[in-house]
Design a protein that fits this description.
188 residues; Porin; 14-stranded antiparallel β-sheet; disordered N terminus
């Protein structure tokens, strides 16, 4: 589940031309996956690189506004994704226990699918994509199931800010915050 905040310099698209700053909160259940590879540089401190993906199959925006225009209807979007690629650190408070905290900062890429008004479909928001800075903070607990493997749970917050053009050439700026809960497997 995530909340995506979108801001824009201008919006002018068919079939309903609208202008000004677009504001709204997108929400939907995200499928989240993470792949990270690294090594311990000292006991309990892991440094590496990773890829974090959030895919929202059907996000919707409630109570959106464009400039002074209140749409009075929800917007339903096509599938959307947020990708974070960058270095990460993972610190185990006591390596033999399992409590750990992690963080990453790197390149983020957002692809927001086309949106349509929920009432009549006349309101249209073009597909958009862009890149910028993204970061992730998380914490979790691992249980050792063998000498080399652990299974655990992990809570994360991923934040991104970036800009890009939509399919009509208009520039958008996005602020994205995605909370997530993951199950993890690690080989040490």
């Amino acid at each position: 589940m995530g909340r995506w905040h979108r801001f824009s310099d201008s919006v002018e698209s068919d079939p309903l031309p609208i202008g000004g700053t677009a504001k709204g909160t997108l929400a939907g259940t995200a499928l989240t996956g993470q792949i990270a590879v690294g090594g311990s540089i000292q006991p309990g401190f892991v440094l590496g690189g990773g890829l974090l993906l959030h895919h929202v199959p059907s996000p919707s925006a409630s109570d959106p506004t464009f400039g002074a225009i209140h749409l009075g209807q929800d917007l339903n979007f096509q599938p959307s994704t947020l990708l974070l690629i960058g270095p990460y650190v993972d610190y185990y408070i006591a390596p033999a226990s399992g409590l750990h905290f992690q963080g990453s900062i790197g390149y983020g890429h957002l692809s927001l699918g086309e949106g349509r008004g929920s009432t009549n479909g006349i309101v249209f928001v073009p597909e958009q994509s862009g890149g910028g800075l993204a970061a992730m903070l998380g914490g979790g607990y691992d249980w050792w199931v063998s000498d080399a493997w652990s299974l655990g749970v992990l809570g994360q917050f991923t934040f991104g800010i970036g800009s890009g053009d939509d399919s009509t050439g208009l520039n958008w700026t996005h602020h994205v915050l995605v909370p997530s809960l993951l199950f993890s497997a690690a080989m040490n």
